[in-house]
Design goal:
40% of the residues lie in helices and 19% in strands. By secondary structure, it is an alpha/beta fold. The protein has two domains: 81 residues, Chemotaxis Receptor Methyltransferase Cher, domain 1, CATH 1.10.155.10; 190 residues, Vaccinia Virus protein VP39 (Rossmann fold). The strands form three sheets. It has a seven-stranded mixed beta sheet. It has a three-stranded antiparallel beta sheet with strand order 5-7-6. It has a two-stranded antiparallel ribbon with strand order 1-2. A hairpin with a 5-residue loop joins strand 1 and strand 2. Helix 2 packs antiparallel against helix 4 and helix 5 crosses helix 6. The chain is globular. The chain starts with a strand and ends with a strand.
Length: 286
């Protein structure tokens, strides 16, 4: 394996060259729309080193050839898993869930949505599940006071690794610190014995969320118009061209009167779009 001495008695992988960094960066951008800036070179170097260890491949150059010639596409999935960032938490950027509870859902009730057709929610970058499970708690709690409303929650992510964690629904106690105590008691089981220090999402809530792998750069596979889309803290990894393409696709996918939520650190004000802004990072399709 291609290793260099680190000068301190240890060993490390050879450094990723600028040429190979650009090749990997181009590949990731082509497949996912994620733009790896030059300052991400050291991060990529470290994360690709993990794949070299896992595959037993000797160099970054050989690994690149392996990825692009792997007809199964499995190694490309592993590569994407290793370069994608997946930070999230329950009730993260809680103002969005407050808008969902105070504005979006009451509006849908007044309009009669959820009676003849399911209200369709989509967490488009669901990571390890905290966002869609938070959405499910808020929606289920509201619907319990308005019986007869039908809904479905879809959750997708490009990373198979975090999707597997999301489907298990097991989290350390500190990860649910922001969940209000009544909701924590209602929707989570506390671990005991060897599971002490962990909680598990109860089966009823897990059944409300349908997880699937999906690349936002692909064609949206759903025929039904979507009512609410969460795409938060994702577009910051895309260049302007990809952001524009994605916002157009979201607008097309939403039903009239549907809502788009983006991350608090994001903005679509510099893009051409037909949304009406209803809050700093919340938008309505008229």
């Amino acid at each position: 394996m291609a290793l260099n001495n680190d000068g301190a008695g240890g060993i490390r992988y050879q450094q990723l060259s600028d040429v190979l960094f650009q090749k990997f960066s181009d590949l990731v951008y082509e497949k996912t729309g994620i733009f790896l800036k030059p300052e991400k070179k050291e991060l990529l170097n470290a994360r690709l080193g993990k794949r070299l260890r896992a595959t037993g491949i000797d160099s970054f150059k050989e690994y690149y050839e392996f990825v692009i010639h792997d007809r199964s596409g499995d190694e490309l999935v592993h590569l994407i898993d290793n370069v994608s960032t997946n930070f999230t938490s329950f009730f993260r950027e809680n103002s969005h869930f407050e808008i969902l509870k105070s504005t979006v859902l009451p509006t849908f009730v007044k309009e009669g949505r959820g009676r003849s057709k399911e209200i369709l929610f989509w967490s488009s970058a669901s990571s390890s599940g905290e966002e869609p499970y938070t959405m499910a708690m808020v929606v289920d709690d509201f619907v319990s006071q308005h019986p007869g409303i039908r809904y479905r929650i879809m959750a997708t992510d490009i990373s198979t690794r975090v999707l597997a964690q999301a489907k298990r629904g097991v989290y350390a106690d500190e990860r649910v610190a922001k969940v209000p105590k009544p909701l924590l008691k209602r929707y989570f089981q506390k671990g005991v014995g060897s599971s002490d220090g962990y909680v598990k999402v109860k089966e009823d809530l897990r059944r409300m969320v349908h997880f699937d792998r999906f690349n936002l750069m692909g064609d949206f596979p759903w025929r039904e118009a979507i009512d609410v889309i969460f795409c938060r803290n994702v577009m910051i990894y895309f260049n302007r061209e990809t952001q524009q393409e994605l916002v157009n696709k979201f607008h097309q996918a939403l039903t009239p009167g549907g809502y788009l939520f983006i991350g608090h650190s994001e903005s679509i004000s510099g893009l051409k779009h037909k949304f009406t802004q209803i809050d700093a990072t919340a938008y309505l399709k008229r």
